[in-house]
Design goal:
With 235 residues, this protein is mainly α. 49% of the residues lie in helices and 10% in strands.
């Protein structure tokens, strides 16, 4: 008898900082400059590294962006498009289908992916270039819908000590950490990729295993020499 719970929640794919920046840039350009969408690797890299509407700023290489696209493809959030007459491959996101997002929701998610946690007012001001909301309440309602989903796509951070406003953040990556609050705007630092820690652990284990193998090889050579000497006694 199949006891699988069909209502079991679907788990969101956890993205790295580079993947969030690539996905956010793809969504943004789809909505702001559709004439240049889908995007080439060069155009997408420039979009990820642009100086405006990005926080923190990045300096990603084409190789890094290409790797992020491949990871997003595996997670079904992006794919390659070969257009007729185009000599270079293009890329586009799949957020509207995979995450079931309408335009208003894609605009808000793109802002959160590209600029990190923001207040409702900030999102209302910044996302209007991608979608025209009917004021703060419209933005709030859209964010609440994204938050109430299962799985939830956005959440509200607790107020930063000394401040009263709460900021929305996306849940496609671990919540960022606050590094500096002395300026007019706090600085949010993306959480480090857990896979990097796993790589470090694997490298340490590999080094230990390599040393053990070398020690075993030395012991085998010693045993071989002893056995050779033992045999000579009977020759």
């Amino acid at each position: 008898m199949d006891t699988t719970d069909e209502s079991e929640s679907i788990q969101l794919a956890e993205l790295t900082f580079t993947e969030t920046r690539v996905l956010g840039s793809l969504i943004e350009k789809e909505l702001t400059t559709p004439e240049y969408y889908p995007m080439s690797l060069n155009g997408l890299t420039n979009a990820c590294n642009q100086k405006n509407n990005r926080s923190p700023k990045s300096d990603l290489s084409e190789d890094e962006v290409s790797q992020a696209i491949e990871e997003l493809r595996i997670k079904k959030l992006a794919h390659r498009v070969d257009l007729v007459g185009s000599r270079v491959p293009k890329f586009q996101h799949n957020a509207e289908k995979e995450l079931d997002l309408i335009i208003a929701e894609r605009a808000l998610l793109a802002e959160l992916l590209n600029r990190g946690p923001q207040t409702t007012g900030e999102l209302n001001t910044r996302a209007c270039r991608m979608f025209k909301f009917d004021g703060l309440q419209d933005v709030e309602d859209s964010l609440t819908e994204l938050s109430d989903r299962d799985p939830s796509l956005v959440g509200l951070m607790d107020p930063i000590p000394g401040r009263k406003e709460r900021r929305w953040f996306h849940k496609l990556a671990p919540p960022p950490k606050v590094e500096d609050t002395e300026g007019s705007q706090p600085v949010f630092i993306p959480t480090a990729d857990k896979r990097l820690d796993q790589i470090d652990e694997n490298l340490i284990e590999f080094k230990d295993l390599k040393e053990e193998v070398e020690a075993l090889r030395y012991q085998v050579r010693e045993l071989k020499d002893e056995f050779t000497s033992f045999r000579k006694q009977f020759d």
